[in-house]
Design brief:
This protein is mainly α. It has 32 helices and five strands. Among the domains are: 99 residues, no CATH class; 150 residues; 102 residues, no CATH class; 71 residues, no CATH class. It has a five-stranded mixed sheet with strand order 4-3-2-1-5, with helices on one face. Strand 3 and strand 4 form a beta hairpin. About 10% of the residues have low confidence.
Length: 608
Amino acid sequence: MSLPKLTESSVRAGASPQSFERGQEYYDNGAISGASIQGDLLSGECEGTSAPYYQVCVTLDEGGIVSADCTCPYEYGGYCKHIVALLLTYIHHPKEFAIREEPADLLADLDRDDLVALITRLLRDRPELYDWVEAALAVPTKSGKSPRKRRKKVDVEIYRRQIRNVMHSLDGMRMSEAYWHVGGLADELRGVLTTARKFLEAGDTETALEILLTLADEAGHGIEYIDDSNGELGGFMADLGLPLAEVILSLDLNAVAREKLRQRMEKLAAPLRDYGLEEGVAIGLQALDETTSDRPVRAARSTRAGHADDEDEDADEYDAEEDWDEVYGDDEEEAWSYADGDTLTTAKLNVLERQGRIDDYLALCLSAGQHVRYALKLCELDRIPEAVTHAKKHLASAEDARQLAERLREQKHIAEALAIGERGLRLKGSKAQLGQWLGALEETQGRAKQALRAWLAALADNPSLDTYKTVKRLAGSGWKRLRPTVMKLLDKSYEKTPLAEVLLFEQDWDAAIEVAERRNVGYTVPELVADAVIKHRPEWVAKISLKHAERLMTEVKSQNYPLAANWLKKAKKAYKQLSQLQEWQTYLDKTKEKYKRRPALQKQLRQL
């Protein structure tokens, strides 16, 4: 594959201004090492603040950046500074990336004996990989078959050792260092969880169950050694609930077997309760009271032609609750309980879908109010008119509409996709993603007015300079009339950076300065505005820069001194623009004298 030619603008588009700026500093300081290209994958190590280094990976295709990951704890959206540093290194110094063959190409010339010898030597040199390889060989493929002849029963102890190694992978680290690696530990456990799902999808529910229970067991014993203040491990333990419920609902258990399993799971849940991590196992225990085989759900009449989901939107709506009572009466003990929450309902739907019980699946969707899944399944069955009619009546949020509209678009039903998307703009919830997706589609269909409406909805929920430019372009001659409304939307947003960026783009320097001087805008907006208006309003830049620098220097906090120095650099540029470098030097000398007993600050001041 020919890798794309990336630009700094494409990196900026995926990162916040702060992350890009910090990433550029890391790049300038040569923080990236061990950079390589393997097929469409860029990887490297970046110096860290809470760890010696972080592992960074970026996947590319012909269109640009597909995905980017870093082992750092950054959780604020967009690319972290380490990803930015790797991408800037690739853009400006691609020759620093060692070219590695794809694994398949690297091993292509080896015959079976050579390959076996290589793997044998690897496993002898790296014995910790043995359990991983043995576990991988036991996992079913997509066809449901193992890559080698399966043993009668999978040795779950393989997975126990693998999980135990993961749980103890932070042993020996300082607490402050281990804290930042809990997320990576949870990700490794999710790899084992994925293996359990593969067994479930292949029909080997017993093995899947044993792996999931082993995960719960080992986590319960290992949690006391881990600082999970950020909740990464807790999040993983909650994630066990859905696959555990699916496995249990897929089993055909008699009363004795069910009670034995209940006792085992209660024992597993006990240590987890001490840390508030029992949610996943609790969902599994709830699933023990359910079954998908004793009482199959009868298909709802609304899935038949001529009932509530035909094309007449005014037809009488099907009463799913009435049909449920007709089948099962009022015996709530024997019918599925929908009070167990969304996770248990999702598990039941996943099991029915996997078993191909379409009528039961659709009926449960209706009874549980899972209208998106109902409509998506109708699309899968090519019952498009029914899906659209049902969606228009029942979808509750813009995100629901986006999911269905995208599915309709994939199936080449453009008109229907547009109709559902436009309806979604009138529903509750954030319309940022729907507006961006719909706006682009509307424009390709020559529907400029509808595209403008969609982009305005996106701007209201997630303002940005790029969206502003799109709205302005689509408004055409009507922009003068529309602009006041757009500016109100931007001003209404809690985050003022987009408003400042728009005002700077329009060269409305004084209005941008007014935004920068507002209370509670932090440092980002003043920095952004100061950098942009230094040639146009140098007096203001000098004043605001010294104000922020003085505030940071007054506090005896060495971590603030580099920030103060950055503001002083802006002040120096402003003085130079004003032809007042002598006044600047006088101020700098006085500042050095004032803070002469602070060596960390003096180091920063000497660089000015």
